[in-house]
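Dear colleague,

Thank you for sharing your sequence with our group. We've completed the structure prediction you requested, and as agreed, I am returning the results in plain text so they can be pasted directly into your records. Please verify that the sequence below matches your submission; if there's any discrepancy, let me know and we will rerun it promptly.
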Amino acid sequence: MALTPQALAKKKSASRTDINQHWRVEDGVLINGGEGLYLTSDADFGDYEMRLEYRTVAGADSGIYLKGSPQVQIWDTTEVGGKWDRGADLGSGGLWNNREDQPGKNPLVHADLPFGEWNTFRIVQCGARTWVWLNHELVVDGAILENYFDEARQVPIPARGPIQLQTHGGEIRWRHIFVREIEPAEANRRLRERDAGGFQPLFNGRDLTGWIGARDAYDVVDQAIVGRANAGGTLYTQATFADFVLRTEFKLPTGGNNGLAIRYPGQGNPAYEGMAEIQVLDNTGPKYQELDARQYHGSAYGMVPAYRGYLRAVGEWNFQEVTVRGSTIRVELNGSVILDTDLAEATDFMDGKGHPGRTLTEGSIGLAGHKSPVAFRSLVLKPLP
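Please find the predicted structure tokens below.
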């Protein structure tokens, strides 16, 4: 994926000999005998729904790579298949390359049909969040597909990538392959509705009831809190919170700049006096191309950088979830985890400035305005025990 377009085109062209040797089409069915290169889509996909059918044989082992990342597992789930020691007895459809203790690793139910029958997959992916139905049974429920190619499993899978049909030693047949790209509004809805129990609104969608601080720096427009371009300051909740999950949708204008104030004490700069300011920034803005890495979107400002490349286009609504427990902060943007850190372990700070507030155990939630019309809506919070 790091190749230039010219080098990638050359690589794809060179792969045709192997593809034509090991793959064929008969009566509308893709067939592979179990060897050769994986069949890879020319197109890359971001948020999408895929449907297909497959039929395999005894002893087979295959899978579907999503955004070029392994994989939705397909295999012989019988005892004679010899892979019960690797989880084959639990069935196909799991995200097998996830770590052992991670959701999605094993399918929720065994849904495979007997050999000789066509199995049906429905796969939905929003960011790294993945849902899998096998033969109409939900086997993966919104789990994160981990990045197998990152040894620490910290770097998210790419925001966009190809779909690949794996070859793995046994004949497999594929048919009725369809892909539908999912628009941001639908992706946000799916992410918002996942595990939605226990969340309470912080914003009523009408006015700033329950919010104090820089009220004159914000307006309520179309059920969103929108910063004013000529005013800044921190707007924050009257209520305080300790450990929680915060969810919101936000929309950035070109060059937009704001932040989520975490455990804000009600005074001072939230990036320093609060536990952290989680940066909300148009990473593509021309004036922001030479920032410290700890200033880009999703970072714990000045302390720990977030992974970049997961924001939607300027003007689109993004979905973000921030989980705070003890001294740890986890930021999930549009279904991909871009920050997962323990601030108690942070020792290197931007410009050598201290962050005395990072040890706070309770405080308000705030919007750290920087004279930019960034919009926030659907602000909800679930306290954690």
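Summary note from our side: The longest strand covers residues 172-181.

Kind regards,
the structure core
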